[in-house]
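Recap quiz, item 2
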Amino acid sequence: QMQLQESGPGLVKPSQTLSLTCTVSGGSISSAGYYWSWIRQQAGKGLEWIGYIYYSGSTYYNPSLQSRVSISVDTSKHQFSLKLISVTAADSAIYFCASVKMVSWSHDHWGQGTLVTVSS
Amino acid sequence: QSALTQPASVSGSPGQSITISCIGTDGDVGAYNYVSWYQQHPGKAPKLIIFDVNDRPSGVSYRFSGSKSGNTASLTISGLQAEDEADYYCNSYTSGSTLSVFGTGTKVTVL
């Protein structure tokens, strides 16, 4: 059973960079059948898709965040990472990582989520 | 890319059936059969309950079913149970450089 686990600082100062890592176990991050995804959820709000990465490094981003976001992958560590620059309080949210099964484009496994607060 | 439109809330009594709509466009729901649905209980991660419009992952109750007509997808919960009280989100593959869009979310209340 595939498992994903987010890690990273829970507190980031305004204007700084939010950095999170997702570690994949029980499955291969180099699988040809999967993309890897970041999603966030602001308090009391809905799910917002941030972006996808393929093991080869190909990325797709939400246009609303594209100028500030980058996602990378490290297959040797079974990890993919999120960086969001110039953060504001509006970027405070629970950040989830998930696997995306390409045959159905469904997010089939999710991490438990990690709360990131942007505050000085 | 705008979020798919869902009703903010739907309620029903135990044993009843309820349906949640998910309205998209010709570029997402209307164009592809890659519609999925997620259940999220408070404080938990979302869980995939429907993929490819109407397929269920192993272990998901048969009481959950999906359908699609034109630009609108729907999730039906039959035989409503207390444990079904949660938030539900649809998601669709979409054309262009974005690839993914979630719905606005629906809170299901079991009366």
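The interface with chain B takes residues 37, 39, 46-49, 52, 60, 62-64, 96, 100-101, 104-108, 110-113 of chain A (CB under 8 Å).
Residues 86 and 102 of chain A are 31 Å apart (CA to CA).
End of item.
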